[in-house]
Amino acid sequence: MLGTELISTEPATGTILWRGNASDVDKEVGIARESWAGWAAQPLAFRIETLRRFANVVRSKLDEFADLIARETGKPLWEAKTEVESVMAKVNISATAYAERTSQRRLDAQMGDRMALRHKPHGVLAVLGPYNFPAHLPNGHIVPALIAGNAVVFKPSEKTPATGAFLVTCMHEAGVPEGCLRLVIGGPAEGKALAAHPDIDGLLFTGSARTGLALNRAFAEKPEKILALEMGGNNPIIVWDTPDLYSAAIVIAQSAFMSAGQRCTAARRLILDETIADQAIETLDKLVARLIVGDPHADPQPFMGPVIDNEAADILTESYLTLMSRGGRPIRHMRRPQAELPFLTPGIIDVTSVSDRPDVELFGPVLQIIRVPTFEEAIVEANNTRYGLSASLISQNPVLYDQFWANARAGIVNWNKPTNGASSSAPFGGIGWSGNHRPSAYYAADYCAYPVVSSEAEQARAAIGVGLRDA
Q1: What is the pLDDT of residue 112?
Q2: Do residues 148 and 182 touch, judged by C-beta distance below 8 A?
Q3: How many CB atoms lie within 10 A of CB 423?
Q4: Can you tell me the distance from the alpha carbon of 397 to that of 384, in angstroms, rounded to the nearest whole number?
Q5: CA torsion sign, 74 to 75 to 76 to 77?
Q6: What pLDDT digit, counting tens, does each position of 170-194 carry?
Q7: pLDDT number for residue 460
């Protein structure tokens, strides 16, 4: 950020990718406020068809869009393409979800009367997007909000403004009224101004727990405004009673190091049965040594690229060293091959002997190992966090999974699957510091419109049977 100018650089090269001026938040919210009623008055079928045209526009620009995401985030091109595919798929998923979750219904009523259930949009919703999935995650708020009839003011992360601008351009090209989807470019100051603006009717947020907690406090005295918080996690993955340690290692590596560990659902803590720990660690270490870390357009394609910027790389390096200073035993040192660029190799550290393990989300390729003697202690350790987003068990024992599912404190509980990779066709969210009980993805329809219940009759017929004096 230089004055009012925002600059986006490619993490893998340091090259300037995009630059633009910070937005006038009051102006953008004002335009959305003036425009939303006309959009809300359009038939639902019209709004859905407009969003379907958006999916077609994105499809026609798939390679261009994926290339932009890869360059701005540093994620491999293959992964950027899957993100664009998720953007397109979100439209049909959201249309189905709206019909199921917020459809018009007739309800039973007494004496031939009728009861109607309908839903109304909130009005103007602000969306704050993250940098790790700069198209898919904000799109997961924007599409359901627009289908419901809201106007949206969208501020992408200051680290990925180019992707946010491209997303909005595609929507406008498809016919979403420019007044009903506004783009706010800027940094923390613009984000705070948008979140606190008196003319928004709600805020849909994806990002860190620290920011989410601040937003929760700020909205505590604004019950009239909807607030949906999608935050991070200190997610556990347990390995217990499984003979196939190589397959387990693959699931662990996917959980911990996909997207360079920059997923809110990434596994941060690996909890191992101490009787198989050494063998499991050796198998995992050999696999991780083979993971390719490189430029998003490299050939052969890398498993993971850099983290988002040098500041993030510095914080992660310092955090790894802090774990070592507290007694953590390095299994695989996290290295930084180029001091001037934010590439990091996966780091694995055994923190079993660290008594005061910090309950923080290390948003990068760092995996902490904890050995325990019993499965009951494994569950206790898995729940030893203020977060509650994702948890996974690798085991061939279904009885253990039943026990794990019943006791794990998380919004996503998986069996023999990675902690990440959640489907947009299901609700997505967590508890504790991971969210505020407003799951997104398929359930986003729930917070984009509010229910209105009506008792209805063609004409008024009324009588008072008791409590009246004679006329």
Answers
A1: 65
A2: no
A3: 12
A4: 23
A5: negative
A6: 999 999 999 999 999 999 999 999 9
A7: 84
Rounded to whole angstroms, the Cα distance separating 8 from 22 reads: 13
Give DSSP secondary structure letters for 410-437.
SSEEEESS-S----TTSEE--SGGGBSS
Q: Which of 207, 192, 200 is nearest to 222 (CA)?
A: 200
Q: What are the Cα distances from residue 431, in Å, to 50, 161, 385, 408, 435?
A: 34, 29, 11, 11, 5
Q: Which H or E run contains 298?
A: none
Q: Which of the residues 72, 264, 381, 448 is marked catalytic?
A: 264
CA 379, CA 400: separation in Å to the nearest integer?
10
Whether 264 sits among the annotated catalytic residues: the reply is: yes
Helices (H), 42-76: 44-60, 62-73
Q: What is the amino acid identity at position 158?
A: E
**Could you tell me the pTM of the whole model?**
0.96
| Joined tokens for residue 445 | 């329809």
pLDDT at residue 114 is higher than 90: no
User: What φ, ψ does residue 99 adopt, rounded to 5°?
Assistant: -65, -35
Structure tokens at 106: 């007739």
Mean pLDDT, the chain, rounded, equals: 96
Residue 2 has pLDDT above 70, yes or no: no
Select from 287, 214, 297 the least CA-distant residue to 253.
Answer: 287
Can you read off the two tokens belonging to residue 313?
Answer: 């790389």
The one catalytic residue in 10, 72, 230, 381 is: 230
Q: Can you tell me the distance from the alpha carbon of 64 to that of 163, in angstroms, rounded to the nearest whole number?
A: 11
**CA 293/CA 306 separation, integer angstroms:** 8
CA separation for the pair 37, 55 (Å, rounded): 24
Q: 36-91, pLDDT tens digit by residue?
A: 999 999 999 999 999 999 999 999 999 999 999 999 999 999 999 999 999 999 99
Q: Residue 464: how many CB atoms within 10 A of its CB?
A: 6
Structural contact between residues 239 and 371, judged by C-beta atoms closer than 8 angstroms: no
pLDDT above 60: residue 317: yes
- Per 3-state DSSP, what percentage of the chain is helix, strand, and coil (rounded to 5)? 40, 20, 40
**Which amino acid, 15?**
T
Question: Cα–Cα distance between 116 and 104 in angstroms, integer?
Answer: 7
Estimate to the nearest angstrom the gap between the alpha carbon of 339 and the chain centroid: 30
Inter-residue contact 94 to 144 (CB < 8 Å): yes
Q: Assign residue 14 a region: left if phi > 0, alpha if psi is -120 to 50, beta otherwise?
A: left
In whole angstroms, what is the distance from residue 85 CA to residue 70 CA?
14
| pLDDT-derived band at 106, boundaries 50, 70, 90 | confident
Read off the pLDDT of residues 426-460 as tens digits, 9 standing for 90 and up: 999 999 999 999 999 999 999 999 999 998 888 88
pLDDT confidence of 471, banded at 50, 70, 90? confident
